[in-house]
Amino acid sequence: MSYQEVETQANKWMESQAALHNPNQIAGGNPLNIIAGMGNKGISSCIGLQWKYRIDAVDGQIQAMAKNMTDAERKSTYLNVRLIY
């Protein structure tokens, strides 16, 4: 394969791919580990859109629990969240 053929094929592949962001980013994941790989653009977009609705439920539960905590407890409490489906 020539360089130009390889470049054309690589560009074609890249058009169908998207950077896969570590799903726990939105829930406080490691900010230095943002991109976990490449994957199908359509699937990635579909999964990513679901976070808009799921994160509201997570936020609501956290805020409800925080209401029952003292200021000192809120300042010293850290979340250890495991997201499962």
From TrEMBL:
Residues 3-83 form the Novel toxin domain. Pfam families: Ntox15. It comes from the Bacteria. This is Novel toxin 15 domain-containing protein. It comes from Clostridium acetobutylicum (strain ATCC 824 / DSM 792 / JCM 1419 / IAM 19013 / LMG 5710 / NBRC 13948 / NRRL B-527 / VKM B-1787 / 2291 / W).
